[in-house]
Structures are given as C-alpha cells and as structure tokens.
Amino acid sequence: MFNRIRRNSASIPRTPLGVGGVALLGLLAFGAPRVARAGGYTLNYMTSYSGCDSGCKGNSSLSYTDDQINQLDSALNDYGHTLLHKFSNQNTWSSDLVEDNLGGQDQLYSDNGFLFAFSGHGGAGTDSGGQTFLAPFCKKGTSSSCTMLSPNARLGEQTGPFALNPGKIKYLIWATCFSVDTAPNNQWDQTMRYGTEMIFGYRGTSADSSTTDEVLGDFADAAFGDNDQLRAAWFWAIEDWWVDDTGAMVASGATESEAISRRANLRASSPRRAAGAIHTWFAWSWHEG
Amino acid sequence: MNHQRALRTVCLALSALLFAACAADVETDAAKSSTESSVAESRGSLVRGAVDTTGLVSVAELAKKVGLDTALGDRAALENYRALEGLIASGAHERLALGIYSLQSVASDPLSAAAARAKTLSLRGEPVKRGRYAVVSDPSGLELRLNADSGSEFMQDLSLFHASPGESLVPDDLRFVTAARKYAQSVLAAQVVGMPNYLYKVRHYVNGEAPEAQSGAKITTYQVAVALGTTIDDLPVIGAGGKVAVHFGPTGKVIGYEAGLRPLSKLVDVIPGKELIPPSVARSAIEKQLSGRGVDLTRYRLTRAEFGYARLGRDSAQNVVAPHYGYVWEPREGDGSKKLVELVPAFTSANALALVERDAALDNKRKAARMGASGALTER
User: Are residues B98 and B270 in contact, defined by beta-carbon separation less than 8 angstroms?
Assistant: First the structure.
C-alpha cells in the first residue's frame, strides 16, 4: 500500500535532505507526543469569488461563511488559542494548504498551527487513487491552481519525506460540500499518512444558511471548551434535523483497530500521534436519514 | 449576515411586488412602540378561536394517513406550501387567520433551572456555568446542559454518546421509535412533554473503515436517533427548533437526548389571510435577494419549498413564532456549491413583522456577541 504515496508525479517529494534525513530531523525536533495545549490556528472563508483566478471566479457568492468562521475564531480565542491568519476572498490562496515540498506554502499558512478551517464551496473528484476532495480558493498563490486538491496536502507531518518543515496540524475543518464524502480513505490518505489527527466535514452537500452559521462555534465549545470526544462534538454541533446536512469525520491509524479507537476516543486534550507513526487505515462516520 | 437587515430587505422587495406600503407600515408601527407586550395588551381579547387554518394540511391527519410510525419528515411543510398556493389561487385564503405567538420565557436563572431539572431527572451534582450553558455532571457519567439563551436541554452519557461500537445489525426502526416516544414522555419537563406529536425522522449513525487504497468499506451502525416534531395549530414547525431527538446505542440503550422545546405563551397577533404573501411572490423576492448577494441561481435547483411555523435552533434567543416559508436550493449535479437555505416571513402584516424583526434583532445581537472575540482579517 505504501506505493500510493506516489499518487501522481506532483506527489514526489523534492526535498534535498532525502527521506532518512528528514525523518531524523523530525524526530529530533518533536520527540515523544505531548499533551495538547494552547496553539495557533488559521481560518479561511469565501463570501465572494469576484476577482479570483480563472477556474475559481464565477463560483456563486455565499452569505454565512463569514459568520461561521468568526464564531469559530471567537470561541477558539476564548479557549486560549491564538489566531495566526484569517484570510477571506481574494486573500485566500490554495497554496496555503499545499505541501511546501510540492510547491505550496503550508508551513507558513496552515501547517504552522494546530487547526485549519475553511468555509466555502467544495467538491469531490477522482484521480488514480480514487476519490479526492477539491476546494476552490481565490488565488493559486505559489501552486499551479486556485483549486486545492486533497492529494497535494501533507499536514501535521512530524517525520517522513515531507517533514523538511515539520507540520503542526491536528485538525482540519472543511465547512464545504463533499469534504468527508463517500471514500474519505481515498480523499485524505495522503494528507493523514504522516500527520493530522482528525478531519471534520460533510458527506454530500452542506448548507449556507443563517440556521447553520453557529455550527463551528458550537463545535469549538464542545470540543475545546467541554473537551467532549471530538466525533461527538462534531455530530452534536452539526445536528440540525431540518436543514439535513450530513456531517462526517475521519480518523486514521496504523492499524484498523487503532483507527477505530481514535475515531471514538480522540479529544482535544489527546496528544498527537507518535512521531514517525504512519497511518494507512481510516475510520470514518456519517449518518443516514 | 444581518438577519434583521435581510428581513427588512425581503419586506421591501415584497412591498414593491405586492404591498407598496409594507415598509412604511413597519416603520410607523415601530415608531408607535408596537412591542410584543403592547400588541398583546391591545389585542388582549384575542383567543385561539380567532385562528382559522381551514384548507391547510393538518399534521395530525397527515400523520394518521401515512401511518403514525412512519417518519413524516418535511412532508407536512411541503404539502402546506402547495395547499397555500391552491388557496390563494382560488381566493379561499382570505378566510385564513394565522396566529403569531410569544414563547414562554427562558428561565432567568439557568443554574437554578438546571438544578431543578437535575433533581427531576435524579441526577446528582451541582450545576455550574460553562459558557452559555448551565451544566450538571452526574457521577454516573450523565451530563445535563441547559442553554441559557434558548432553554434547550441536552443530556448525554459522556462515555457512550457517539462512542458505541458499531454493529452490523440493529433492531428495527419501529423499536427505536416506540422507545423514543416512551423515553420522551418520561424525561421531558411537564410544560413541554405534550408538545412532540409526530415522528419527524429516524437517523442511523454509521461507521466505515478501510485501508488507504481500498474502494468500499466495512459498514456498521453505532447509534440511532429518533426526532419527534411539534406543531402549532396543527401546522408543522419548521427550522432546527421545536424538536426532541432521542439517541440510542446500537442495541437500544438511551445514551442522550436534546430537546429544543418551549411552550407557547400567548397569542400576540393574528394574520388575516389577505396579508399572507403568495408563495410564488415570496420565492421571487428571496431569489431576487439572493441574486443581489451574488448568488448564481442558475447553478441551483429548488428542492424544498415549505410553509410552517419557524423555530430556531439550540443557540437562539427566539421569543416569537410566526408562519414562515422555508426554501432549500441544492446545487445541480456535479456542482460543488453549498446548498442554500432561507427562512422568510410569510406575511406582510405590519405589527407582526415588527415583532418578528425585533426578535430577530435580539438574536442577531446575541450572535454578534458570540463573535466578539474574533480577530481581524489578514491582508496579503
């Protein structure tokens, strides 16, 4: 299964240090996992795609994504975390999520904090590795497209071939459609292989609505205020029987049983995975009805 | 997004289309201090008998027709939208008279309210304030959370809520439905226990597991939830509120519930049928507003058009309930646009709009306060 790391030509790391050197660097830098503490976070939202790069302009405007992100921001701030960057519209760059080894700058604008959240449009596609996730940002930044593709994201890596600049991400929140869709083990395997503890999103479409603009704030309260189990916090926050969004989340593990255990038991206070742990199993949840 | 501003815009748009004096009337009445209480006083003689829903779809009858153990979902609201279209087309809507109601106040002392509920539920533990919630943690692992703004009540078994192992087979939905009704009867506060009166939806929480390259996954069910809906004057309540959801582990053990229920306090106004906005006009107005916000509606198709009483969700500070239209637009096939969901008042009556606007303003103030610690945007 490990050969899937070479999902496409763009996935081949360009690090001059080589795999062994980077792994050692990561181990020296991070050592054993530590209990979570106050950290930095980055937030992005799209209300307008006006003035965006071709391929992203023309997307429909959104009305409540700003409220979603600002509520999350305020709650995280209340719980002692620090806003690193908050970008909207023409200041959002897809390269902020792309691995720095692959031409992006995640080490500066997403993977330098414990949490990244995006509220905007999103979709599912396919490539040789199966289902992908894609999100239209506004500008391509340092990468080749304004559309962020999940196979190009490597986040939270403490060791391994992408750890020239080790990552810090624990959680991704994609308040978009199709972000944890029908095959999250295909969508997020590259991203979660060396890091990232849990990804929260939606199966199918998600709503832009005044009635769901507090979902991310509620999640923050439950996850970071009450230290609820993260899966429980996400599903509780999303639960709006009338709007009928289908929330979903995915965790990973080195084995099937580890992925299952982490899906049910991870909390904000849980430590990051051990440096060097490679996760190739995925456990996810959603709801039907 | 400022909901009050949105309401005003809808009102103005509708005025242009239908009632030219709408906005002016609202302002005039607002200037006359048409507060909820003054309206209630001036119309103190109003009683439930003033309400007439003849020609609209009765939720009780519809539930009986489809089967009381069949989840009704949004069918009642969808059918009422169509029924209203028909009534307006025939002119029969003029005999309709729909109530505007205030909700009973949320407890002014959430800690005391939580203590009282904990006692009723046989929970031990002292209530503590945690954010917007009053929380009672029982040593058994049960935790009760009362929302200070909405009065919504959430109880969970901390070790089991969304933490049960998955099972390949779970009991039939009917067993969960029966158990949910029974549990709701036993656990809800006396003043709301009679409110949930039809089966809204049944939901299965599902697990999937697979290694990275695999297509397909092992699927199990780890939790089942049953939502019971409420009505006002036998019309459906739409929106996130006005429901109780009981959550079960896969073998049928209750592991949590959330109730967004508040009883009506009093009838504060009555909307005469002639002041109802025709559904097509309301839809045109909100679509115009969405287009004005930059929404490209050609990427969407309208999938739900509903009519009912709007109740907001667990966080809201709502105090007035009124008839609304609910619209959902889904992106067309292959489009990754977010779906759009809007609730708009279904009437032009100036007094009633003023009440709804004032209520929305209070809730917007609450939402704004909740964003109070958010930081500035980053420029690059």
Answer: yes
| Paired tokens of A16 | 């001059």
How many Å apart are CA A122 and CA A179, to the nearest integer?
7
* Interchain CB distance below 8 Å, A71 and B374: yes
Same domain, B119 and B230: yes
B59 located within any domain: no
| Domains contained in chain B, number | 2
CATH architecture of A40-285: 3-Layer(aba) Sandwich (3.40)
In this structure, are B278 and B350 located in the same domain?
Answer: yes
Distance from CA of B185 to the nearest CA of A (A): 20
Mean pLDDT along residues B292-304: 96
Nearest chain B residue (CA) to A191 = B212
CB-CB under 8 Å, A285 with B206 = yes
Is the domain of B346 the same as that of B259?
no
Task: Specify if B81 maps to a domain.
Answer: no
Chain B interface, best mutation among A241, A244, A250, by max B CB count within 10 A: A241
Whole-number Å distance between alpha carbons of A72 and A216: 5
Domain boundaries, chain A: 40-285
- Per the prediction, chain B carries an average pLDDT of 90
pTM, 2 dp: 0.89
Quote the tokens at residue B354: 């003023």
Nearest to A264 among B163, B217, B337 (CB): B163
Please report residues of B whose CB lies closer than 8 A to that of A207. 328, 338-341
pLDDT per position as a tens digit, B120-140: 999 999 999 999 999 999 999
How many Cβ pairs closer than 8 A exist between chain A and B? 237
Q: Cβ of B108 under 8 Å from any chain A Cβ?
A: no
The 10s digit of each residue's pLDDT in A79-138 is 999 999 999 999 999 999 999 999 999 999 999 999 999 999 999 999 999 999 999 999
What distance in Å separates the CA atoms of residue A222 and residue B232, rounded to the nearest whole number?
Answer: 32
Looking at chain B, which residue has its C-alpha nearest residue A63?
B1
A206 contact residues in B (CB cutoff 8 A): 338-339
Is B72 inside a domain boundary? no
- Domain boundary (B230, B248, B265) is at B265
Helix axes B350-370, B3-17, angle to 10 degrees: 150
Q: Which of B265, B293, B310 is the last residue of a domain?
A: B265
Q: Provide the residue range defining the domain that includes B310.
A: 3-52+96-103+268-370
Residues of B in contact with A288 (CB under 8 A): 203-204, 206
Tell me A224's DSSP state: I
Residue contact B74–A242, C-beta within 8 A: yes
Distance CA A74, CA A238 (A): 18
